[in-house]
Amino acid sequence: MPNTLVIYNPTAGRGRAQAHWPLVERALAEAGVEFDAVATRAPLEATALAERAPQSYSSVVGVGGDGTLHEIVNGLLRASSEAETIAVGVVPLGNGDDFAKMIPPETPIGGKPFDWRTAVTKLGRGQTQLFDVGRISSNPPPGKAGDRPQYFINSLDVGFGAQGSLNFRTIPKFLTGLPAYLAAVLKTMIDYPIPRIRIQLDDHPPFEQSTTITAVMNGRCFGNGFWVCPEARADDGLLDVMVAQALGRAAILRLIPKIMKGTHVNEPVLSMHRARRVEIESQEPLLVEADGEFPYLGTHHLKIEILHKKLRVIV
Fold first, then answer.
1. Share of the chain above pLDDT 70, in %
2. DSSP 236-268
């Protein structure tokens, strides 16, 4: 009986996953991986599949991008009630594949993650390592029931990056990878409103400021090339946080090349932090993005915590 469930997203990577799936399927069989395979057809289907998977399987593999893995990990954490999960593997065939960049050997700054062939080799070996996961909760308005917690594997951001991720979905499909993300960034710069938020890190006194972007990272990179927190570790029990001041378009354009090289961390318009818990509040509704997905629409309060070494990853 197969012990691995493979969940593949045909739309991931603007069709890359679908195009490569026959090759991946054959290579997995040749590598001795015994598996059942299911293609997702609707949003959140991967979450439901992963939540049921531990009843029949000892591992789940996502073929797709960060969004596919985001859904799978949410299902696995729900199934385990936030205890250690069954193993999860990745065949990176998405747009950004930033989660894969954290899997040893880690991708160097400016580099690309391992390809699908290397992924299959890793899955055949079956070696695992425990990773951290970010946990997100939101205070509901008075009189409304709260949503269940959400989880992220790589990144969460409030502000410019979240709007950029939303705009990415409108970029023509002939643009892929980093050029598509850069197009989304330029589109976001046209009329992005800068929010004012209140931030608290662990039990330190909160601070309030207008911020172009606040990024809370488990990984080092998002958007297929923006090395926001280049010194972050996915197993250190800490969230890495970058807070940018309110920046004009010229300042953003000057900053982007530095972030793409990971050389921005000492810029005076940025502050870098580490914490186990981050709370963000705003009088205005917040646009929140996590691993390229949008877990809360219009919330005014976020609580982000680290779940230390709860995700077992095939490396």
1. 97
2. SS-EEEEEEEP--HHHHHHHHHHHHHT--TT-T
Which of 51-55, 252-256, 264-268 shows the lowest per-residue confidence on average (mean pLDDT)? 252-256
Residue from 307, 298, 291, 308 nearest 95 by CA = 291
Contact 108, 295 (CB under 8 A): no
Residues 6+ apart with CB under 8 A from 206: 198, 199, 200, 279
The 3-state DSSP class for residue 282 equals: strand
Structure tokens at 296: 């809360």
pLDDT given for residue 43 in this prediction: 93
- pTM assigned to the model: 0.92
Phi, psi at 59, each rounded to 5°: -155, 155
Residue 248 has pLDDT above 80, yes or no: yes
Contact 232, 220 (CB under 8 A): yes
pLDDT at 146: 56
Residue-level length of the chain: 315
Token pair belonging to 68: 């596919």
Least confidently predicted of 55-64, 147-156, 185-194: 185-194
**CATH numbers and ranges of domains, the chain:** 4-134 (3.40.50.10330), 135-306 (2.60.200.40)
Torsion from C-alpha of 83, 89, 93, 96, nearest 10 degrees? 40
What is the distance between the alpha carbons of residues 171 and 36, in angstroms, rounded to a whole number?
34
Q: Residue 293 pairs with which residues in a beta bridge?
A: 290
Task: Map tokens 């499909």 to a residue.
Answer: 173
| 7, 38 contact by CB (below 8 A) | yes
Q: Cα separations (Å) of 303 from 18, 87, 134, 142, 191?
A: 36, 26, 10, 17, 28
Q: Which residue has the tokens 């691995």?
A: 4
The number of C-alpha atoms within 13 Å of 258 and in the hemisphere containing its C-beta is: 13
